[in-house]
Amino acid sequence: MSRGGDPFAGRLFVLSSGEELARAAAGRLWGIVRERDAVLARGGKQASFIHVALSGGETPRRTYEILSAEPYRARFPWDRVRFYQVDERWVPPEDPRSNLRMLRESLLSRAPAAGSNVCFVDTGLSGPMEGARRYEEALRAAFPVPPGSFPRFDAILLGIGKDGHTASLFPGGPETAAGDEWVVASEGGEPRVTRVTLTLPVLSAAAQVVFLASGAEKAKALRDVLSGDQALPASRISPAKGKVTFLADLPAASLAHGKGGRERR
Ligand code: 6PG
C-alpha cells in the first residue's frame, strides 16, 4: 500500500507493547519534524514554523512524555515548532477531562516549548461555537491560504475511538459533513461532552497523519478503518498530497491481519 516511494505511507506498524508504541510514535514525530526542518533549510526558510497538531485522549500521553525527555528534548527544534490542538473537550483547562491539561502535563510543562508556540482552543470563551470560531480565526492567521483552501499541517497525530471516531468527529455526526469550515463544535465520545474539533478536510490536507491505536478494545475499529469503512470518520482521512501511517500495539492490531501492509517492529 506504500505510495510515492514513502516506505511509511499507508502502512500499519505493529509494536510489541504500549511503551514500544509510544517510542515509535515519538520517533515518527521527530523524523517528520527533522525532515521538514531540512526541507525548509534547503529552501532558505529557516525562520518558517513547522506546524504540528496533537490529539488528546489517553493513548498519546506517553508519546508526549518521551518526546519531552532525552534524547528528543535536546534535539527537537522546539523554537521552530508550533503546536496545535486537534480537538478539545468543552471543559475548563484545569479539568481532568481537558486535552490541554493532558498536553501541559505530558509535554508542554516538560519541554522548552514557548507558550507563544502553542495554539489552543480557549474554553474560557462564551461557548463551543465561539470557541470554534475563535480557534479557526487563529488558524487562519497562522495559515494564510486562499479562500476555500485548507491549512497544511506538517504533522497531525490522531487517535482512533472504539467506534471509529477520530479527533472529535463521530460516526454519523453532522460535523463530518462540514463544508469549508476548518473548526467545528461537536457532541459525543467519552467523556460525553461538547467538543471543538478540526474538520475532516483539514485533517486530510496534512502532509503527514500518524494514527495511534493501543489495546484490544481498538482492534475492530482499526481493522475496519484499514479496510476503508467510510462510515467511520477515521477511514475518511485521505491526504491527496500527504501520507498516513498507522502505529498500533499487538492487541490493537490483532484483527488487522494482512491489512495496511502490516509490519511488525
Ligand atoms: C479526544 C480525542 C479522541 C481520541 C480517541 C481515542 O479528545 O477524546 O482527541 O479523538 O483520540 O477518543 O482516545 P484514547 O486515546 O483515550 O483511547
Chart the SSEs and their pairings.
Layout: E1 11-15, H1 18-42, E2 50-54, H2 61-67, H3 72-75, E3 81-85, E4 87-89, H4 99-108, E5 118-119, H5 128-142, E6 155-159, E7 183-188, E8 193-198, H6 200-204, E9 208-213, H7 219-226, E10 243-249, E11 263-264
Parallel strand pairs: 1-10, 1-11, 2-3, 2-6, 3-5, 6-9, 9-10
Antiparallel strand pairs: 4-8, 7-8
Helix pairs in contact: 1-2, 2-4
The structure holds 6-phosphogluconic acid.
The site of 6-phosphogluconic acid (6PG) has 16 residues, from strand 4.
Characterization of the model:
The protein has 265 residues and is of the alpha/beta class. The chain is 28% helix and 20% strand. The chain has helices at residues 18-42, 61-67, 72-75, 99-108, 128-142, 200-204, 219-226; strands at 11-15, 50-54, 81-85, 87-89, 118-119, 155-159, 183-188, 193-198, 208-213, 243-249, 263-264. The strands form 2 sheets. It has an 8-stranded parallel sheet. Strand 9, helix 7 and strand 10 (243-249) form a beta-alpha-beta unit. Helix 1 (18-42) crosses helix 2 (61-67) and helix 2 runs parallel beside helix 4. It is globular and about 45 Å long. The model is unreliable at 1-9 (pLDDT under 50). 6-phosphogluconic acid is lined by residues 55-59, 86-87, 89, 99, 159, 161, 165-168, 189.
